[in-house]
Design brief:
Blueprint (H helix, E strand, L loop, with lengths): L1 E4 L13 E7 L7 H16 L5 E7 L3 E9 L5 H9 L9 H15 L5 E7 L10 H13 L2 E8 L5 H10 L4 E4 L2 H15 L2 E12 L8 E3 L6 E4 L5 E11 L3 E4 L1 E3 L8 E14 L4 E13 L12 H24 L3 H21 L5 H23 L2 H16 L5 H11 L1
Parallel strand pairs: 2-3, 2-5, 5-6, 6-7
Antiparallel strand pairs: 1-12, 3-4, 8-11, 8-14, 9-13, 10-11, 14-15
Helix pairs in contact: 1-2, 1-6, 4-5, 5-10, 7-8, 7-9, 7-10, 8-9, 9-10
């Protein structure tokens, strides 16, 4: 289990410039409260941007257009920006791909040394242009390789949650569900606040196995990209990009090793992990290395060794995410009963495991109890609040937890939004 804690900056005034491109759905279904709420959120957003921040707004219906030209806020006339936002009206059909591609183009043209972010707000299903989930996910993945993060916010209960979640996951950003107009304002503020306060960028985990662990014996319990490349000596290494870590964020990554049979007692190194990153605001490159070893003991000593409780809990929570994915798939098939059963079984499993782990520190026991309570609440929602609402809430939760971003601050603010 690798844990990362990103420091809070002393002041935001002198932080590096950040580029944020908002891509707003203005199709016919957005007419009314949804579009008005999105505009209120954008008004609030531009008011808190710093002069060095670069902002642009793209809108789309059957075609995409630049509603607010992309430039540093210090070069914008704020009153004009507000007027342009207020003048956005609902249009026709939904070509989300056109809006996203234009947003990516603007982000690529104006990205800074810390990259850029594209925030997509939509309330419906794409019915023009590219609508394939995998293709849109690949676009987001390629953009992330160029330093562009994709965040998606679904508005109301009739948007394509599978599409928006895939774009956010592959783009290494968050996917959020704003079920009400008030939620839209709050969620945009929360996600923009993260994007504008990056603490660490371009974080990579590199794992070089020794002979005790083959390259194929390395995996992760979090949903993150990974590939194999060679180091300077031609040895294979697994590369896992974590992207950006926000100020004050705690991030986790669970790595699995399949260890070959070892013939001698004692300690054996199975891999070396290197984490390299760029810290802000000084853009200083950093690197941390750890040798990863296992101890081989005789059966008489085995009882003296116990798994680390923090790792055990992290692994249990990763298993819960898999169950939530099963529940999402069941709800996608309109099978509420199967979704409820999956969530109930997971809650009971957490309860049993917590009871069996007698030496668990109180903080970790409380974390398991919190997750058990949440699973039972999701079970009730699946029964009482409808398929569409429940599926979107669970998918939002999966997006956060599956990538190890569910620190207490982000977990609390999202789950408070649910209630």
């Amino acid at each position: 289990l690798l844990s990362f804690e990103a420091p809070m900056p002393e002041t935001a005034a002198s932080r590096p410039a950040e580029t944020l491109i908002v891509v707003l759905d203005r199709s016919g279904s957005m007419a009314g409260p949804e579009l008005e709420a999105a505009k209120v959120a954008l008004h609030s957003l531009v008011d808190v941007l710093k002069p060095q921040d670069i902002f642009g707004l793209v809108t789309f219906d059957s075609q995409a257009m630049i509603a607010v030209p992309t430039r540093a806020m210090g070069n914008h006339d704020l009153a004009t920006v507000h007027a342009l936002i207020e003048g956005i009206d609902a249009g026709n059909t939904t070509d989300l791909s056109a809006g996203y591609l234009l947003g990516l183009r603007e982000a690529k043209r104006h990205r800074t040394d810390s990259g850029a972010s594209v925030m997509v707000l939509s309330d419906g299903y794409a019915n023009q242009g590219t609508t394939d989930v995998t293709t849109m996910g690949q676009l987001a993945l390629k953009a992330r390789d160029r330093g562009i993060t994709t965040v998606t916010i679904g508005i109301g209960e009739n948007y394509d949650d599978s599409l928006l979640e895939e774009m956010a996951t592959r783009g290494q950003g968050s996917h959020r569900f704003a079920s009400t107009p008030d939620d839209t304002t709050a969620v945009v503020a929360q996600e923009a606040g993260d994007l504008l306060t990056k603490s660490v960028v371009n974080t990579f985990v590199r794992i070089r196995p020794t002979g005790a662990t083959g390259i194929d014996g390395i995996g992760t319990l979090h949903d993150v990209p990974r590939w194999v490349e060679q180091d300077s000596h031609g040895r294979p290494i697994v590369v896992i990009p974590l992207g950006d870590i926000y100020a004050g964020e705690t991030r986790e990554l669970l790595i699995q090793f399949q260890v070959a049979e070892l013939s001698m007692l004692g300690t054996a190194q199975i891999a070396e992990i290197t984490v390299d990153f760029v810290s802000l605001p000084d853009f200083e490159a950093g690197e941390v290395r750890w040798p990863i070893s296992v101890g081989v003991v005789g059966s008489d000593e085995l009882s003296q060794h116990a798994p680390d409780p923090q790792v055990r809990v992290a692994a249990l929570l990763a298993e819960v995410v898999a169950t939530k994915r099963d529940a999402v798939e069941a709800l996608q098939r309109n099978d509420t009963q199967q979704a409820e059963k999956a969530l109930q079984d997971a809650a009971e499993r957490l309860s049993r495991q917590s009871a069996e782990l007698s030496d668990l520190p109180e903080a970790l026991r409380a974390r398991l109890a919190e997750e058990e309570t949440h699973m039972r609440a999701l079970q009730v929602r699946a029964r009482e609040q409808g398929l569409e609402y429940s599926r979107r809430r669970i998918r939002e939760d999966v997006n956060l937890n599956s990538r190890g971003r569910a620190d207490e601050v982000r977990r609390t603010r999202m789950r408070r939004q649910e209630s």
